[in-house]
Structures are given as C-alpha cells and as structure tokens.
Design goal:
alpha+beta; Alpha-D-Glucose-1,6-Bisphosphate, Chain A, domain 4; 2 domains; six-stranded antiparallel beta sheet; 6 strands; 32% strand
Length: 168
Amino acid sequence: MKPGLAVIIMCVAAPALADGRGAQIAKKAQGDLPPTNQDGEYGYDAVVEVPGASADDLFSRARAWVARAYVSAQDVIQLQDEKARRVIVKGTTSATYGMITMAIRHTLTIEVKESRYRYRAGELVLVTGAGEEYPLTKKKMLIQTARKLEAIIEGLKAAMASSVDEDW
C-alpha cells in the first residue's frame, strides 16, 4: 500500500472510530447478528419491569402468550413450573439458505417474579429433514433467525405488559 493512501484511509476512518461510530460500523459489518452471551452462544436475555403486576398474573400472561404464539403449545412447552414460575419452550422457526428452507429450533425460558420477568432466548440449532441437529453457524441464517426471535420477543413483551381483563 502506498504511504499516501494509508494516510487518507486513516484520516477517513479515525474520526468515525473516535466519535463512537466505530461500533456502529462494526455492527453494520457484522450484519445484525444476534448478540452473544458470555459463552459465545447467540441469543437474547433481559429482565423487564412490569410495575404493579403480581408474579401470579405475570405467570398467567406468559402461559397465555405461549398458547397464542406457538401453533401447539402442548408440543413446545418443555417445562411449566408453577412453584418456580418458569416456562421453558422449545420452538421452531425457519431460515433459508440458498434454495433450501431449514428448521431452526430455539429455546425460550420465561421466569417471573413480583413486578418483573426475565426471558432468555437462544440455543439455536439447525434441524435437518432427517432429524439431525447441528449448531447454527451460517451468517445469513443467523440474521434471519435473529429477526424472527426479535419479533417473538416483541410479542412476549406486548403480552406481558397488558393486563388480563377479567371483568367482561
């Protein structure tokens, strides 16, 4: 590389890195992949406050949302622990790679306490037509799956934020 070209590149890139746009540029280059946890696995997790909501009410909202959000709640619910107020769902979505649409399994854990709940969505696994399972590593499929998981999480947040009207 010519010295003059290197200086021009540094003059253009340095301001972007200095004013915080470097992270945005890096994220853009990453292609909106889902975030990773401390183990390097892709997924989402957060604790969400719902002021004034009881743990029982939040647990009821979570179960009702799972029943509406998944085609067969009985098939996807792996655990429904009323004492611990925890629901674990193993759901399936899809992603396309070339001309092939593949099933992508995810695990969603919802735990509730007084006035708050925590969700964890991840454990992304590619499932072949023969039932074989592989870690999801293809960037294009990860991006598609990230968008679908984000939509699932937004649906959960909306359901958990609205109270059930018992007086009808």
